[in-house]
Amino acid sequence: MTKMINLLPKQREKMQRRKIKMISPPVTKIMRNQLPKQRAKMQRRKTKMIFHLVTKKMKSLPLNLRQKILKRRIKMISRLVMKKIIQQLLKLRTKKPKLQI
Fold it and tell me: At the top level of its lineage, which domain of life is listed (predicted)?
């Protein structure tokens, strides 16, 4: 913190940004050390979780806001993963209830 005081405002801003970036390296380090397949799996799982969180939040929001948030979140998720998730959701919706005898 002592360094921050005698910096110019722009430099101070840069430092703060850097600090924010510094918070998450352990996660990235773990990801880097894993095998590529594992890493891909982790990323997929992460995107699914983000998607579920978003959809849960969506239900209580008005449509416009809902779309904005979804767009923002989807940018973080790759298109392929997004397609897969949406297809799964659609399948769940269209499944016909089985007749119980």
Answer: Eukaryota
Residue 19 forms part of a structural domain: yes
Cβ atoms of residues 54 and 82 within 8 Å = no
Overall number of domains in the chain = 1
pLDDT digits (tens, 9 = 90+) for 32-74: 555 566 666 666 666 666 666 666 665 666 656 666 666 666 5
Buried b (16+ CB within 10 A) or exposed e, 19-55: eeeeeeeeeeeeeeeeeeeeeeeeebeebeebbeebe
